[in-house]
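PROTEIN DESIGN WORKSHEET
SECTION A - STRUCTURE
LENGTH: 239
TOKENS:
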């Protein structure tokens, strides 16, 4: 279905990120969404880390997520990144859009090509790890992400994009523990897509997505959901 198509970096935010990277002429760079903000001294703190250690390619920092005028820590497990950055990525996406700082010479334009429509930063973090880029952590608040009602993370396409991103990751990672996590994530994503289609009355798509979720080793956990889809299907025919 159209909603599950892979979207390349030709339009939207993905294209803007690529264009931004292409415009970089300095030795370091970062990003800032229009509804977010850097905290005082944020740039200085990040620059200091890159200046002091030329082997570091990326600085990942902590910050705040502000919802209903209340600040909460953006990340609670940022320290795990220094131990195992790939595994830590599936605990929480430690590379926020305004939380990262990059060395231009080692984080090239290539990393920003063919970004998914959503979940750009998880995908970018994954690619950087796979390319053996060195990540340093600054577990201090340097940014504030302001929650907005119309943010992309609340859209339906954001849900569909999980299948695209997890499938890409699974196709290129070899670690057994991470592959197991990705299979679980994909299974859950297919189930959620099925339920969304069911609620919208797109029953053929709901069945197709449900069957995809059942193909995974732990897919049995959604066998009972078959009754829910069947009941919805019967009700639709009755009316």
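SECTION B - SEQUENCE
RESIDUE ASSIGNMENT:
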């Amino acid at each position: 279905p159209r909603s599950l198509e892979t979207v390349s970096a030709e339009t939207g935010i993905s294209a803007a990120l690529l264009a931004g990277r292409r415009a970089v002429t300095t030795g370091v760079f970062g990003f800032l969404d229009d509804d977010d903000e850097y905290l005082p001294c944020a740039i200085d703190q990040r620059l200091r880390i890159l200046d002091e250690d030329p082997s570091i390619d990326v600085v990942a920092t902590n910050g705040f997520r502000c919802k209903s005028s209340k600040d909460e820590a953006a990340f609670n497990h940022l320290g795990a990144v220094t131990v195992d950055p790939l595994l830590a990525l599936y605990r929480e996406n430690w590379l926020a859009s305004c939380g990262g700082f990059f060395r231009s010479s080692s984080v090239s334009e290539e990393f920003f090509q063919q970004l998914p429509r959503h979940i750009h930063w998880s995908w970018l973090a994954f690619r950087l790890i796979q390319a053996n880029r060195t990540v340093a952590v600054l577990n201090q608040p340097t940014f504030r992400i302001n929650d907005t009602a119309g943010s992309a993370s609340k859209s339906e396409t954001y849900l569909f994009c999980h299948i695209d991103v997890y499938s890409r990751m699974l196709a290129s990672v070899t670690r057994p523990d991470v592959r197991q996590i990705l299979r679980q994530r994909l299974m859950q994503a297919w189930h959620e897509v099925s339920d969304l289609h069911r609620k919208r009355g797109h029953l053929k798509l709901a069945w197709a997505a449900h069957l995809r979720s059942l193909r995974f080793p732990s897919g049995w956990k959604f066998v009972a959901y078959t009754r829910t889809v069947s009941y919805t299907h019967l009700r639709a025919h009755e009316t």
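SECTION C - NOTES
DSSP finds eight helices and six strands in the chain.
The chain has a mean pLDDT of 90.
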